[in-house]
Amino acid sequence: MSDPRSVPARRSRLGRGVHATSAGAVDERRPGRRLDPRRRIVTFLALTLIFTAMSAALAIGVGTDGDAGQWIALAVMWSPGLAALVTTFAFQRNFRGIGWRLGKPRYLLIGYALPLIECSLVYGLVWLIGLGALRGDVFGLVETLVAITPSLLIGIFSALGEEIGWRGLLVPQLARLTTFTRTALVSGAIQAVWHWPFVLFAGFTSAAPTWFALCILTITVTLAGFSAAWLRLRSGSVWPVVLAHASFNLYVQSAFNPATRDTGITEYVVDEFGIAFVLSGSVIAYVFWRLRHRLPTAAHSGAPNAETRDDPAGW
DSSP H helical segments within 130-265, as ranges? Predict the structure, then answer.
């Protein structure tokens, strides 16, 4: 009979999440409960459902206009973030692994600039071929873009609430279970479905029919899951995705949409619910999908004990 005191010593050398069988063999197929990504994902989604139901009830009943509405909108956006923080603390007793560090500047630059470049190309092409018309001139648009950029700080705080959930927790945990492609699709689709109640009942839509806006939003948000997941896993940081989210919202809502005059079908083409962003989003998603080989090996292979760059073993 072996000395029972040798078992803890053997397990400490193997590390948490790697189990020694009675015969001394290593079984990597049974992660510890604290490290099991399935439990974290289920817990996170359940809490997100609860917190979102409460904030959505306010958004639908009270609305998101006025001072009170702004606080309600903020509570809505922070529902996934709060769920992620509660889940992380429940499993770890800390808030590590969300991706708090800023990461390398080039990924922050990509996160900020990609939506601005996308919007410039999409709206510029729409104005050029007559599917929409530019109000004023390009110089006026540039002045607007410069003037509103400081407001990005407010947008960052709002976007942080969502992205702590979708990319801070969900993407790294999915990456431990499956491939990059499935991680991007699943996380993007979940985020898209999360928006449905607000499109259907809270007025988060465009001048186009609600069914059209819902379909377009579902597709574009799912496609955006590819660039968001890639940036999160490649940089090890949630901040590039936060910047991308805040940048897109700010420049579409406060610059490009107000600068665009309807020429008949414009509401079907641009805005967050326009088909043009399905086309541009498809191209961007394909580019990041092709770049999946640049991710940490475990992140795009679906290895069972995959680690992201800011998640050391044992966290």
Answer: 138-148, 152-163, 171-175, 180-201, 210-235, 239-251
